[in-house]
């Protein structure tokens, strides 16, 4: 939950009390066949209930890495189901629900838009480029100490 900062915070005061839920693990398990549609359906119903009963400004759903929808081992029917359910949630709870995720490379983003051409408009996605001056901590690169790592944060307009 986003909490009010006593000092000069960087987030608008309207976001105080905003809840965040991450569903990336459930979505990965679903598109790779590790869990069935019923479990994912229950998760989406839980999200709907959380938004309906939210006393704060709403809920941010973190769907994680967008490449999930472009994976070769992902079931296209499962991916369509996910996009359909997230789109439905946005249509019903558009005032109190936001989506957030990320993608490492713009090419992956374009791949996903190829598969789901209306997603960018339906989800009102905004690309925010994030660049780091070095590699993620778990990776080491021997060729150079300077490494440009970029990812694109995808959010439904707040």
TrEMBL record:
<protein>
    <recommendedName>
        <fullName>SMAX1-like nucleotide binding domain-containing protein</fullName>
    </recommendedName>
</protein>
<dbReference type="Pfam" id="PF23569">
    <property type="entry name" value="NBD_SMAX1"/>
</dbReference>
<comment type="similarity">
    <text>Belongs to the ClpA/ClpB family.</text>
</comment>
<dbReference type="InterPro" id="IPR058680">
    <property type="entry name" value="NBD_SMAX1-like"/>
</dbReference>
<feature type="domain" description="SMAX1-like nucleotide binding">
    <location>
        <begin position="11"/>
        <end position="134"/>
    </location>
</feature>
<keyword id="KW-0677">Repeat</keyword>
<dbReference type="InterPro" id="IPR051650">
    <property type="entry name" value="SL_signaling_regulator"/>
</dbReference>
